[in-house]
Amino acid sequence: MIVAKFGGSTLSSYKSLRKLYDTLVAQYNPDELIIVCSAFKGITDSLLKIAYANNKAEAKDKLERILSIHKKVLHHLNIKPDCMRELFIRLRGEVDELSPDNIDTARLDSLLSYGERLSAKIISEVLNKFGIPSISLEPKDISFYTDSNYGNAVPLPESEDLIRERLKEVRGLPVITGYIGITKDGFTTTLGRNGSDYTASYIGSCISADEVHFWKDISSIFDAHPNYIKSPKRVPEITYTQLEILSFFGSKVIHPSTLLPLKNKKIVAKIFNFKNPEEAGTVIKDKISGNSNRFFLSIETDITKISMQTTFT
């Protein structure tokens, strides 16, 4: 079984959804696949702006823009928007109840979760339309239980067995919401920004997946930042530990916490370029062949250095 995660930068239009379908057909057996998705590009940030809008009118205007983006995708793919009606109603209700006096971390997590909910539902509808039986799943559907540390929640220990058993019961290709979980009391939580990568990794760990694939808008991991170094070299394979170190020094290809469930079970991860699926990408695993020593260049910008000196007399 393979877990494939598609990120927000790869979900930006109806064309990208059609490309997602083409990629699945070319790369995978739908019977041996689980999809984890992020929100459409920019939607989480737009939802955050709704939470802190100056007034109701501004919040509703931003909401309509979000709904319009998703409706346009459905329209271009000839999918009736009725399939999204329940989610649209629930999201409108959340926004209607917002006020400066009642914004807390729990309510904010609930609002931000709708990016992934809308995305998963649309992806599932697209797959169904083109002949791949699919179902969108939220945390409550697979018992993805977390603690109540809103904004940076952590899965509960019992979630692993529950998720594995729930997924065995699913018929069709599962499209799971990344980034979000649920407390035992039924409140929505989020796993922190870039948490969708962690969702894919954690679910891969739960089911002991053969591999976890991360589809991004880059070709692979390089030994230096392509924006600063001319012709950096692609890194064909890298260990979990090496990538953790790169993340510590500023690499943003994949979130450091994402690696932990994979590392614990020695599950192979691969990074692919959504724009050019035929490119080799980078393999992440416990041990790599040959000489594992490699030079990497990390570049940080906009850094202020403060020097302090203390004189004792």
How would you describe this protein?
This protein is an alpha/beta fold and 313 residues long. 39% of the residues lie in helices and 14% in strands. It has an eight-stranded mixed β-sheet with strand order 3-4-2-1-7-9-10-8, sandwiched between helices. The protein has a two-stranded antiparallel ribbon with strand order 5-6. It is globular and about 60 Å long. The N and C termini lie far apart (69 Å).
How would you summarize what this structure contains?
The chain has 11 helices and 10 strands.
Tags for this model:
single chain; eight-stranded mixed β-sheet; two-stranded antiparallel ribbon; disordered C terminus; 39% helix; 10 strands; alpha/beta; 313 residues; 11 helices
Sketch the topology as an H/E string, one letter per element: EHEHHHHHEHHEEEHEEHHEE
Helix content: 25-40%
- As residue ranges, the low-confidence spans are 305-313
Shape: globular
First-to-last CA distance: 69 Å
If you compute it from the alpha carbons, what radius of gyration comes out, rounded to the nearest whole angstrom?
A: 21 Å
By secondary-structure content and strand pairing, the structural class works out as alpha/beta
Averaged pLDDT, please?
87
In DSSP terms (H or I, runs of 4 or more residues), the helix count works out at 11
Strand content: 5-15%
